[in-house]
Structures are given as C-alpha cells and as structure tokens.
From TrEMBL:
The keyword Signal does not apply. Keywords: Hydrolase, Iron, Metal-binding, Protein biosynthesis. It holds the Pfam family Pep_deformylase. This is Peptide deformylase. Belongs to the polypeptide deformylase family. GO terms for biological process: translation. One of its GO terms (molecular function) is metal ion binding. GO terms for cellular component: mitochondrion. InterPro entries: Peptide_deformylase, Peptide_deformylase_sf.
Length: 179
C-alpha cells in the first residue's frame, strides 16, 4: 500500500526513533522515494513548517525538505522554493556562529535559542539524482543544519546552551512578531 501524507504520524520528543541515525537512500529515482518526497512536501506545508526530515514521520531515510515561506509559525521566514535534500553532508562551515530561535514540529509549542554556523557549504543528491554543492547562509543555513541534525538523531534542544533560552511558542510569537 502506498503511503499518503495524511497517513504520516509525526513522532515527538521521547519517541526512540527520533534519536536514531537515518540510513542512506540507495534508490533516489525509485517510485517509492519520489512518492515519499511528494508526500513529505504536502505534509510539511499542511503543518506550517519550514522543513521536515523523514525521521520525523518515522521513516528512517536520509531525506529532508526545506520550504521556507512566511506562515503562522514563522511569520518572518524568507520565501524559497521547496528544496528536496537526499543523503546530505556539510563540507564546510563558517567559523562564525549565531544564535537564533528555532522550533520543531516534533517538539510542539516550544522555541529555543540555538547556535548555528552562519554559512555552510553542503553536498547532497537532488530528487533528479544529481549530486550538487551549494552554499547556504542565514535562515536557510539554519534550516539545513536543523534538518540534518534530525538525520543524525539530534534535536535542537540538544544544542541550546541554557534552559533560560527556551520558551513556549505562544510567548515567542508575542515577543517576536508584534509590531
């Protein structure tokens, strides 16, 4: 039976599968992989996320999607076309890091201030099975690092430096989106 995004169950902090290392995708061009990419995109758009990793819906593959755009959870997010990332790796990181607020569909209702590299150069396979290298900066670099962490069993709270840098999403939205 082919899985539809409405069948996905978002796994949350505490579920042991959120902490495992995802497996390399071998058949990028295969029907199952292509269908999974379409369904992951539909799922993350429906959930107002700016990214989703396959392990978050209990699929143990090194796949994630970045799809930044302004929405109710990220009103100030930049607009970018959906980007399908398969078997990614970071091949260069800037020395400069910056703390920024992050949320996660697998940690609902919470935001944390997370240090990330400001710029990264990455290599990954596209959905058309091409290996590419790209440099990302700012918010998009943050999304990439956040989603890559999911593939390695890491959640953003693991990177928060102090419990004083965690807040409820409702309070974050009041503080950072009011005019």
């Amino acid at each position: 039976m082919t899985m539809n995004h409405t069948d996905f169950e978002l796994i949350e902090l505490g579920h042991p599968h959120l902490r495992r290392h995802a497996e390399v995708v071998k058949d990028v061009s295969g029907t199952d992989t292509q269908h999974l990419l379409d369904e992951l995109l539909a799922f993350v758009l429906a959930k107002n996320g700016v990214g989703i990793a396959a392990p978050q819906v209990d699929i143990n593959q090194r796949i994630f999607i970045m799809c930044s755009r302004p929405n109710s959870r990220y009103p100030l997010a930049p607009d970018m076309p959906p980007t399908f990332i398969i078997n990614p790796e970071i091949i260069w990181r800037s020395d400069e890091t910056e703390k920024g607020w992050e949320g996660c569909l697998s940690l609902p209702g919470i935001r944390g201030l997370v240090p990330r590299h400001q710029a990264i150069k990455v290599r990954y396979t596209t959905r058309s099975n091409e290996s590419i290298e790209v440099e990302y900066t700012g918010f998009v670099a943050r999304i990439f690092q956040h989603e890559l962490d999911h593939l390695d069993g890491i959640v953003y709270l693991d990177r928060v430096e102090s419990t004083h840098e965690i807040m409820m999403e409702k309070e974050w939205l009041k503080l950072f989106t009011s005019n």
